[in-house]
Specification:
Blueprint: E1 3-4, E2 14-17, H1 23-36, E3 50-55, E4 70-71, E5 74-75, H2 76-85, E6 92-97, H3 100-108, E7 112-115, H4 123-134, E8 140-143
Parallel strand pairs: 2-8, 3-6, 3-8, 6-7
Antiparallel strand pairs: 1-2, 4-5
Length: 153
């Protein structure tokens, strides 16, 4: 289910969990809903700008360091990022991280990394903070779970 992130302006920011349908399907679903409910009246005229944000964190209580666990020789976060890169609907992919170990690993394989606050309670908050720090306008934000190395692009 798409969720609306709070904003002080009249802009609508939707953060979509990619795990529901896969990245491309999530983007299409939000675009369809936005057009149907006239949330983005210009949608039929222009291509939406879409960013995929992969929130990850090192300090999980159940599995500390999970993004760095190797799967067939590569960290899980790298496998997730590589699958997300295959999604043609995404204009940009960013890893949202609050730990320098994971950020360094991600930069090592070429990912854009935005450092987020330790205060973020969940991935959606991490995505929203990242969107604010990007300083660019996107119509759709896709929340791609960092622990989904086999996500359907």
């Amino acid at each position: 289910m798409a969720t609306h992130a709070p904003s002080s302006s009249s802009d609508k920011t939707w953060i979509v969990p990619a795990a529901v349908l896969g990245v491309t399907a999530a983007v299409a679903a939000v675009a369809h809903a936005a057009a149907r409910y006239r949330l983005l009246p210009w949608l039929g005229k222009y291509r939406s700008r879409v960013v995929g944000i992969i929130p990850a964190r090192f300090a999980s209580s159940r599995f500390p360091g999970k993004p760095l666990v190797r799967i067939l020789g590569k960290p899980m976060i790298q496998r997730t990022w590589e699958r997300a890169k295959l999604a043609s609907a995404l204009d940009r992919i960013v890893v949202a991280e609050n730990n320098e170990k994971i950020a360094e690993c991600c930069r090592g394989f070429g990912a854009d990394v935005i450092m987020t606050s330790e205060e973020c309670k969940n991935g959606t908050e991490r995505c929203y903070e990242t969107l604010q720090k990007l300083g660019e306008t996107y119509d759709i934000v896709v929340n791609i779970q960092g622990d989904e190395p086999l996500i359907e692009p």
